[in-house]
Amino acid sequence: MFLINWGRFLGRLDPLYYSGYIAGFIDKLNFDKSKLHSVLIYAKNGFAAGKDSQSSDASNSYLQIRPTNIDADGILKFDKNVYVDNPINADVLCMGEVLFNNTNSQELVGKTGLFDLEGNFCCSNHITRLMPNQNVSPNYLKEILNFYFRNNIFYSLCTNWNNQSGVNYTVLKDLLIPVPTMEVQHQIVDIMDTAHDEKREKEQKAKGLLDSINGYLLDELGIVLSPAEENTLENRMFFTNSSVVMGGRLDPRSYTTKYQKIFGAIEGSTFDKKSLRAIISYDISGNWGLDETEVGDDLLTCLTIRATEFDNKFNLNLENNRVKYRNYKPQVYEKIAISSNEILVEKSGGSDNQPVGRVAFIEKNMVESNNLAYSNFIHKIIIDENLAHPRYVFEYLRLMHNIKITEVMQTQTNGIRNLIMQEYFSQAIILPNKSTQERIADEASRKRASAKSLEDDANIVIQRAKEKVEKILLSGSL
Hints:
This protein has helices at residues 21-27, 138-150, 153-157, 169-172, 182-221, 233-236, 242-245, 257-267, 330-336, 364-369, 390-402, 421-426, 434-475, and strands at 33-35, 40-45, 54-55, 62-65, 82-84, 98-101, 103-104, 112-114, 121-123, 127-132, 159-161, 164-166, 176-178, 272-275, 280-285, 300-305, 324-328, 343-346, 348-349, 359-361, 372-374, 378-383, 410-413, 416-419, 428-431. It is of the alpha+beta class.
């Protein structure tokens, strides 16, 4: 609870803005402070690129930096790019501009990056471009705004409209920031830069380990994939016998040379093979259950796994703040109850660059920590352990998804990809003897665990650096 004078109302009625949290937090910072606008040469917003000006051609266009190109640590990333044609000169990014995410979901508003690249770049209207003057290092300004972001300053400053949250420049310009000497600014930047370099190195090692799993499995199973061919019209043309098509789907991808070569490579393995259906003892689709607010003495509350929890690098991520809990009637839960060594298959979802059909393996610690259920977009399969090692089958199905076999086992409606379960269950599973399966599964698990350990270490490095910076800002000394 708090009290506020009527005269302090600034046309906003959201109580979080007036709670005193922002002023109290900034007062703890033990350096002289200045309003943001007083340490800037200029502030500009990016522009909204219409659909007609967007382009997929990177060679003659400008890459438009959007909030998705800035991660939570302020590092620019370029895995989801949009290009625009011919922005005016005033819209082109300049070296040293600090890029503030002004519009997003409320918890993501305020993440801030630094533009320090050469080339053709612009930014969207969800980014505010800040150019600091000689009193503030651009790198330091990026770090202090991200420090505020981590401490929910912008969360408190947000206004909300049309299901989006934002901090416009009229509010941002009067925000007080600490302005220490250049020596202290550079020290803070050096701490974070060193940590990011170490984090990047560990993440690259982790990625190398994860990438090696595919090659390891392919080698062990004797699957020899052909090199990717150039995407020419000639290479996209193919012929197939009518007898192959009759009675089946008319999706042309299934019959292309590319996928026929992949299927041929699998068939060429000298190990025994069975269909996935032949080694499954039980399977069932999930259930979305009832809302957590539903009341009933017999209802069971469960952490309900969705495609969102499928981690593309490791397995399932059940330790995030976005997990969903749903209520289930006992008779419903009994049918879909999850046990260790079971496999979950994403049967609906996917994206432009990610075919549906990701898989997850249920570890013992997962079922010990939670009552688990899974949504209707997920399908559970239980492997007959007399016929195959469950973890090996998980690794094999994951490999098949990684080489994109599931692209030809899906349909797409209303923007959602759906796995054709009949075709998925019909795919060939290569089955070496049980001891070989176990050895392969153990080695793949070891590589994945080592990669996860490296990523955890990388996150610890960044966390410790952030704590050092916070200590400097609170103590007022190095």
